[in-house]
Amino acid sequence: MHPALQGILTIAFGVGGCVGYFYLSNIILDHAIFPARGTHIARNIRRANIVRPWLFLLPALLALGLYLAYPVFETLRLSLTERVPGGGSVFVGLDNYKQMLGEDKFWEALQNNFLWLLVVPAGATAFGLLAAQLTDRIAWGNLAKSLIFMPMAISFVGAAVIWKLVYDARPPGAEQIGVLNAIYIYYGGDEAQQWLTIPFWNSFFLMAVLIWIQTGFAMVILSAALRGVPEDTIEAAIVDGANPFQIFFRIKMPQIMGTIVVVWTTITIVVLKVFDIVFAMTNGQWQTQVLANYMFDKLFRANDWGVGSASAMVIMLLVSPILIWNVYNARKEMR
Amino acid sequence: MANLKLTDIAKTYGGTVNVLNNINLDIQTGELVVFVGPSGCGKSTLLRMIAGLEKISAGTLEIDGQVVNDIPPAQRGIAMVFQSYALYPHMTVRDNMSFALKIAGKPKAEIDATIERVAKTLQLGELLDRLPKALSGGQRQRVAIGRSIVRNPKVYLFDEPLSNLDAALRVATRLEIAQLKESMPDSTMVYVTHDQVEAMTLADRIVVLANKGIAQVGTPLELYESPQNEFVAQFIGSPAMNLFPGKVIGTGDVTSLRLDGGGLITSDVPTTDEDMGLTVNVGVRPEDMLITEVENWVMECTVNIIEALGDVTVLYFDSLEGQAPWIAKLPGIHNGLRGQSVRLTATPAKVHLFHNGQSLLYR
Fold this sequence. Notes:
The complex is a heterodimer. In chain A, helix 3 crosses helix 14, helix 5 packs across helix 8 and helix 11 packs antiparallel against helix 14. Chain A folds into two domains: 77 residues, no CATH class; 238 residues, MetI-like fold, CATH 1.10.3720. Chain A contains 14 helices and two strands, in the order ααββαααααααααααα. By secondary structure, chain A is mainly alpha-helical. Chain B is of the alpha+beta class. Chain B folds into two domains: 232 residues, 3-Layer(aba) Sandwich (Rossmann fold); 121 residues, CATH 2.40.50.140. Chain B contains eight helices and 21 strands. In chain B, the strands form four sheets. Chain B has a six-stranded mixed β-sheet with strand order 6-7-8-3-9-10, with helices on both faces. In chain B, strands 13-12-11-14-20-21 form a six-stranded antiparallel β-sheet. Chains A and B meet through helix 9 and helix 10 of A and strand 6 and helix 2 of B.
């Protein structure tokens, strides 16, 4: 069968299945299980209404349970076992964790993750806030916003490829195409550099990619928040003699602090899970390893599911508190 | 501590939409002037032009003899109280009040002393460390007023400061503003409202704005007793002044008129011989209408609806076709008038005459 046809059939089957499920299960509930007639009509209607939300939520709960909840526990189990040659596995306690903690590469990844954590959310939020404020009052602000937002539509791998070209360096003698090298040489650099192989700084070159992507997200959310700042308070500040900087930092920013925190933590979670960019650009070489890529290395390259799962658990432990805080703040904002 | 002079002020948006024209106004030091008018008449726009929040399209604005058209708000020596209070939600009352002083770089000791003094006069002492969200509407408005007082401005600008308060609080806060003005006799205040009671009770002079310009300027009682035009006549006073179409049938120091309904009335407004036969609108305030038994009645009409308010009774009559119902406001309680036919008259001193919307008194 032609793949396109197969795709269409899958969509039709999936959507049709969903519609059919909701429609038919609803009919069965209303007519077969709790019919709205007879002596217990009021009770039946009440009961049907209690059951209905669960009925409609069931597919989603099952899917989430299967693809999110179950893997968490399975990963936890795997992180405590070791595969034995010839099939099967044995319980090894915390051995996998011990082995992982003894590896330099793990500590390098953890260290890099913290570096990312410091730089990327701060950078993306700051640039997003700047872009939101600067594009707010100008005629071509929306065009500028669209351009800044566009990287959000590019997959991380696509972005990585684009930026790899920016950092590209050809052998001496060959024609150079890297923008960064062009700038470097314009400002007096001697020869083209292999930017991604220069430890410590190369991590920042990778971070630039994620900042480039996330700035658009931060800008859109913060722009909406800035518009929600009451105009009156800004006018009152003008009458009080505040200059534009004071208005921005002392009147506007404090009023959107809740949103800034939500944006910051949301990006933090993205950063903790960062994988594609590192995978596609350096694959963790030259001291750019991060936790997610380390996990991938262990799980799918070394086939060491024990240590791989252990590192996955570490990522989850790091993300969870921030996620909870994020949800807490987002809810507070919505009230 | 300063006078304001508005000369030929106009406001145009985007070069085409004209909202205000030829505003000429002198506001003396220590005066409380109220801008009043229907919504959309540009009264807030005029205030915001004085504040410097809106650009002045044409004309000049002088504060204390200095043209301030191009001077930023903070340097005009004005302070503004907003309708929505416009308190900084993330700052405590103290920080709200001291913000302007901090921006101006005043020493901390001086700021603290000023805040303490103003907080005391406005009874905000215990609220100083609260956030605005923990205050009631009236308290918020007091903080907003306090925030303007600490700056010691030449001119206070109030933009409908009471309209977000409930009725009881509005009366209380109105009195507070009146007392505040009393305690600062040298400060000039400009106050915008759509509420004529606020205008009548607070103002030294009222500026009625309508049709992109000033309809009349005068003391509250001038506007009430001798309105320049039908708009002011009907805008000031509640219920609005009755207007009866009629014709001049006798001229002189006292004018006689025949109403289109058939009744006769005399007015103390003087007319000349040329006015004989002139079509006019005869204006009588509902509270000036009297029920009479004498022959010289103005009109005879049927009471349609009665509103008994206790202190007064408002009667609504059938009027000529296509006109608002005629209204009489009688002191005291009058039961059993509904459906009755009554004869009404008015004393000549209380009868206003308008031709083409303009009062014959001001020719």
